[in-house]
Amino acid sequence: MSNAVSENVTVDEEQYYHDANLGAIWSASRTLIAVVSTLFGGLVFSYFYLRSLNSHGLWDPNGIKASPLLGTIILAFIIASAVIMQVVNRRLRMGITIDWQVGALAALGLGVLAGAFQIWILTRLNFMPGSSGYAGVYVASGPVNALVILLSMYWLETLVARSIRSRKLTAQDGGIGVSSQPSAENFRASLDGFTVFWTYFAVLSIVVWYLLYVL
Amino acid sequence: MAIKTTSIAQGGDGGRAVAEEKKGFRLNVFTGLIVGVLGYLFGHWMGNAIAGGYQQVVGSGQNDVAILLGFIFGTIGWFLGLGILNYPIQKMAGIEPPAEKYEYEPGVMKYFRYTLDNKVVGIQYLFGMLFYFFTAGLLAMGIRTELLSPTNHIWGPATYLEIVGEHGTMMMMMMTSVVMGPFGNYLVPLMIGSKRVAFPRLEAAAFWFTPAAYIILLSALWQGGFQSGWTGYAPLSIQQGVGQDAYLFSFALLGFSMITSSINMTATIINYRAPGMRWSRLPMIAWGMITVAFTMLLSVPILIDGLYVMGLDRSVQTAMLYAGHGGSSFLWENLFWFFGHPEVYLLALPGFGLTMEILPVFARKPLFGYRTAVAGMVGVAVLSFFVWQHHLFQSGMNPDMRPLFMLTTELISIPTGFIYLVGLGTLWRARMRFDVPMLFMLAVFFNFLFGGITGVYVSDVPVNVTVHGSYFVMAHFHYTIMGQLIFAVMGAIYYYSPLYFGIKLNEKWGKIHFWTMFVSFNSTFLPLFVLGLLGMPRRVFEYAARLQHLNQWVTISSYVLGLSLTFFVITFVWQLAVTRPKSPLNPWQSRGLEWQVGYPIPPGNFDKIPVILSGPYEYGDPNALPVADLKPVEPSAVGVSSGGEI
Amino acid sequence: MTTTESTSEFTQAEGRSHVRKIVGIWLVVAIIADYFVWFVYGPHMPPGAMTDQARGQQFDIKVISVLAIPVLLFLWTFGFYSIAKFRGGRDRPDGYYVKGNVKTQTAWYVITATLVLFLAGFGTYELIVPAGAGGGEGPSPIWTPSTPVKLVVQVIAQQWRFTYRWPQFGGMETTSINLPVNTQIQFDVTSIDVIHDFWAYQLGVKADANPDVNNVAYAKTLQLGRFTVRCDELCGIWHGAMYNYGNVVSQQQFYNWATQMQKQNATVTKLLPKFALTYTPSYTGAGGGYYPSGDPNGTTA
C-alpha cells in the first residue's frame, strides 16, 4: 500500500506546485503592474509638481515640445501592439498557433520599433535638457519609457521563442494554446500575465503621451 | 558524505531550474568580480568617449557620465560573471531548463555562488548583512570619535561628513534587507510548508545586488565621498563630486534588490502555502514579510525615480532639482521622503514580525490578539504612505498640509500601539523563560518604547520646530531602528542558530553580550535626546562647548557598544567555526513548523508537502494538535489548493 | 474572546489581584513623575520662553510629556511586574492559555485612539494660534500673527554663513543680528545656494532656507537675552561651523544699533542688489557651476 500511496502523493505534489506556480505568475505579473505604475507615478508627480510650481516661469516658457509626430507614432505602435496581442490570443485559444505566432511577432516588431523611436527622439531634441522644467521631465521619462518597452518586448520574445520551440511537443493535443500539458499551461499563464501587463501599459502610455506631447 | 538529491517537480516545462550544471569549474564571486571590473572599464571608456567633450566636463574635469556608465556596465558584468544572466539569455531562445535539483552540497563554496536554494541564499544574506552592518557600525565609531571634542578634530570637516554620509546610507539602504534577506528567505518557505520559493532566481539575484551596491557605495570614499548625508538634498547633492554618483547608483541598485526580493516574497506567501496554512495561521514573520514586501513594491520605485532624476541632473544637465532653470529642490525632498518614510517602517515591521514570532515561545503562551497583531502591521504599512511630509514641516512647502500630516503621523501610533497590546497580553500570566533570545525580545519592547513615545513629540509640529534636524530626531530613529530592528535581529540569530547551523550559542556569553549591548545602547542614545533638546543639530563636527561632557559620555558608551558587538562577532565566529556546541533538536520547544523538520534541514525543506493542522502559537493548550502532519500518508493534498481549508 | 480556565492555577481572582497591584504601583509612580515633569522640570524645558512661539513649544513639550510619561510608566510597570511574577522554566508547565480578551482590547483601542486624536487636535491648535509656532510657513503664510508685524528681518543663508537684510532700514545687510524686545517680528528666510536652515534656538524659530523660496516665520519677542543661530540642514563641509549669536535688546537699544549700522553700511548698501524676497543663485555657483549663469531662454532678467 505504502508504495501506491507515495506514488499518489508524488503526483499530487507535482500538480500542487504546478498550480502554485501558475498562481505565482499571476501574482507577479500584477505586482509588476504596481511597480511600473509607481515608477511612472514618480515621473508624473514630477511633471505636475514642476508644472504647478513653474519656478522662474521656466516650466515651458516657449511651449516647445518634443516632436509630437514621433510621440504619437510611438503611442500608436504600442496600442497597435497591445490590440494585436488581444486579437491573436483568441486565435491561440482556438488552437491556431501559427496565427498567434505571426501576430505576436508583429506585436513584437511594433514594440521594438516604439522603443527604438523613443531612443531616437532623445537624440534629436529641439531643446537643451536643462532649458526648462518640461525639458528635464521629458529627458527623464524618455529612457524609462524605452527601457520598460524594450524589457516588455524581451518578455514577449521569450514567449514567441518558447511557442516555436515547443511546437512538436504540443502538436498532438492541439497546440500550445489548448494543450493540457503543464508546460503549455505555464506558457499560457505567462502569456496572460504579459497581455494584461502590456494592455495596462498601453493605457498608461496614453496618459503619459497626453502629458508630454499634448497638455 | 552521501549526496541527497531531491528533485522538485514543478509545473511548466519541467520547471524553471538550473540546467544540469557541469561539475568542475563553475562561475562564482571571483569571476563576477573580474567581469564586473572589465564592465566598469568599458563603461568608463564609453562615458569618456561620449561626454569627454561636454562643456561642463572639460570645465570641471569631472565626468559623471563616465562614472555612471562605468557603474552600469560594471553591474551588468558582475551579473554576467556570476552566471545570473545565463537563464534570461537562454529564455530568449525559448529554452526552459530542466527541473531544478536541490542537492546537499558540502563545503562553503556554495555560499560564493549564485544558487537557488532558499536556505543557502538566507545564509549568504545573513553574513552579507552582518558584514555591511559592522562596516557601517565602524563608521559610526569614527563619527563618535570626532565628537569627543568640539575643538580638536580627528577628521577634517569634509572627511567627517563623508563618514556620516556613508554610515547613514549604508545602514538605511542595507538594513532594509536585514530581516527579509536572512530570515524571510530562509524561514518563510519552511514556515508556510513549502519546498521552494516562487521565484528562486529573483531571490538569489536580489542578494547579488547587495555586494555590488556595497562595493560601489564604499568606493565613494576614495573618490572624495559625498557630503550630503543619506538624505542627499539637492542642490547640495548636485554640487558634490563623483562620490555622489556612487551614492545614487548604489542606493538604486539596492532598490532593485528590494523589488526583486519583494516580488518573490509576495508570490511565495500568497501561492505556496501548504494545505491548511490559512491566513489565520500564518506565522508572524510571514505577516511581517508580506506587509513589508508590499510596502517596498509601492515605495521603492519612487526612490529609484528620485535617484534617477538626481543622476540626470548631475550627468546630462537636466535641471529638475534646480529652481533657476525651471526645476525645484522640493521635488527631490518629496520624491525622497515619499520613499523615505515608508522605508523607516519597512525597517521596523520585520523587527516586529520577529519579536512577535519569538515572544510566545519563551512566554509559553499563545500570541495574544493575533488579529490585532496583523491589523497593527497592516495598519502601519498602509499609513506609512501618508506621512512623508512630516519630514518637511519646516521646509517651507505647503503649510496647509501640516495639520493633516500631523494627524496621519500621530494616527500611526494606534497600530503601533496594537503591537504593544499584543506584547503585554502575551506576557500576562506567562511562564517566561529568560533565555538569550527572550532577553533581546523584551529589550525590543523596552527600546522601541522610547522611539515610539518620542515619535509623538517629533510629529507635533510646534515641538518639531525645536527638535527637527537635531540630535533628538537622530536619537529617536536610532531607538526605532537599532533599538528595535537590530536587537530583534540579534535575538533571532541566537534563536535560529540551532536551526541554521545546528549549534546552540553559549548562554553565558550570550547574556554578557546582551547586557553590555543593552546597557551601552541606552547609555549611548538616551543622552542624545537631551543633546538635541539642548540645541545640537545633526551632522555637525563642531558643537557648543557646554555639550562636551554629554558628548564624551555618549562616545565612551558607543565604544562599549562597539566592544559588545565585537564580543558577539568573536564568540559567534568562534562557536560557529571552531567549537560548534551541538544543539539538541528544537532546543526552545517551539511549535513553529520550521523547527519540526529536523537538522540538517533536507535540501528540499520537506520530504512531503506537510498538512497544517493548527496555529503556530498554541502554547498552554494541552489539547492542541501538532502544528502540522509532516508525513501525511493519505494523499491529502488531492485537489487542495495552497493555503486551503483542511 | 474568553477562555475556559484551562488549569485551576489561573483563577479569575488571582488575575484581578495582579491587575490591582499593577494599577496601584502605576498610579503612584505616574502621579509623582507627572508632578516633577510639570512643576519641577517644566519651567526649564527647552526652548525656554524668550518668545511667544518658544513659550508655546515649551508648553507643548510639557503637555505631551505629562501624557506620555504615564503611558511609558504603565508599560514599564506592567513589563517589570510580569518579569518579576510570571516566570517559568524548563520543568514548569506552560502559561495561561488565552488568545484575546474583548474588553481589554477594546479599552486599549479606545484609550490609544482618544489620546492620539486629542494630541493631534491640541497640536493643530498650538500650531495655528501662535502664528505657525515659529516654523517656516513658505512664501505665502496662512497663519499670521494677530498683532501687526513691526519688524521684518530677511535671513540670507549661504555656504557657510548667515547674513541679515533689513528692508525697514534702507535694505542694509549685516552679519550680526539684534532684535527689539516685545516686538512682533517676521523672518523672511532664503538661501542663495543650497538648502540651509535658520534655527534660532531660544526664539523657537526654525525655517529651511531654500534657494529661490521665501520661507516666512513669525516670532514675538518677550524676554531680553542672547540667542544662538545655527544651520540645521546639512549644507556642505562647513555646516558644523555655520552658527552665530544674536541678542534680544530693548527697543531703544535696537533702534540705536540699527540706525548706526545703516549709516555705517550706507556705502556698501548701494552696491548690493535691490532688496528682494529671493535672489537668483545662478550667479553664485550653486549647482556646482554646472549651469551657465543667466537664463537659458533669455526670457527673464
List the helices and strands and how they pair.
The complex is a heterotrimer of chains A (215), B (646) and C (301).
Chain A: H1 2-53, H2 68-93, H3 97-123, H4 133-165, H5 182-214
Helix pairs in contact in A: 1-4, 1-5, 2-3, 2-5, 3-4, 4-5
Chain B: E1 5-7, H1 29-51, H2 55-60, H3 64-82, H4 86-92, E2 101-103, H5 118-146, H6 157-174, H7 180-192, H8 200-219, H9 236-239, H10 243-271, H11 284-315, H12 329-363, H13 370-383, H14 402-411, H15 413-427, H16 436-459, H17 461-467, H18 471-501, H19 507-533, H20 548-579, E3 611-612, E4 628-629
Antiparallel strand pairs in B: 1-2, 3-4
Chain C: H1 12-41, H2 52-85, H3 102-128, E1 151-158, E2 161-166, E3 172-174, E4 177-180, E5 184-191, E6 196-200, E7 205-209, E8 215-220, E9 225-231, E10 243-249, H4 251-264, H5 266-271
Parallel strand pairs in C: 1-5, 4-10
Antiparallel strand pairs in C: 1-2, 2-3, 5-8, 6-7, 6-9, 9-10
Helix pairs in contact in C: 1-2, 2-3
Report what the structure shows:
The complex is a heterotrimer of chains A (215), B (646) and C (301). With 215 residues, chain A is an all-alpha fold. Chain A has a single domain (2-57, 65-214), classed as Cytochrome c oxidase, subunit III, four-helix bundle (Four Helix Bundle (Hemerythrin (Met), subunit A), Up-down Bundle). Helices cover 80% and strands 0% of the residues of chain A. Mean pLDDT of chain A is 88; it is low at 1-11. In chain B, 61% of the residues lie in helices and 2% in strands. Chain B has 20 helices and four strands. In chain B, the strands form two sheets. A two-stranded antiparallel ribbon of chain B has the order 1-2. In chain B, helix 8 runs antiparallel to helix 10 (243-271), helix 13 packs antiparallel against helix 15 (413-427) and helix 16 (436-459) runs antiparallel to helix 18 (471-501). The longest helix of chain B has 35 residues, at 329-363. Chain B is globular. Chain C has helices at residues 12-41, 52-85, 102-128, 251-264, 266-271, and strands spanning 151-158, 161-166, 172-174, 177-180, 184-191, 196-200, 205-209, 215-220, 225-231, 243-249. Chain C has a five-stranded mixed β-sheet with strand order 3-2-1-5-8. Chain C has a five-stranded mixed β-sheet with strand order 4-10-9-6-7, with helices on one face. The longest helix of chain C has 34 residues, at 52-85. Residues 1-7 and 283-301 of chain C have low confidence and may be disordered. The chains are: A mainly alpha (215), B mainly alpha (646), C alpha+beta (301). At the B-C interface, helix 2, helix 6, helix 9, helix 12 and helix 13 of B face helix 2, helix 3, strand 7 and strand 9 of C.
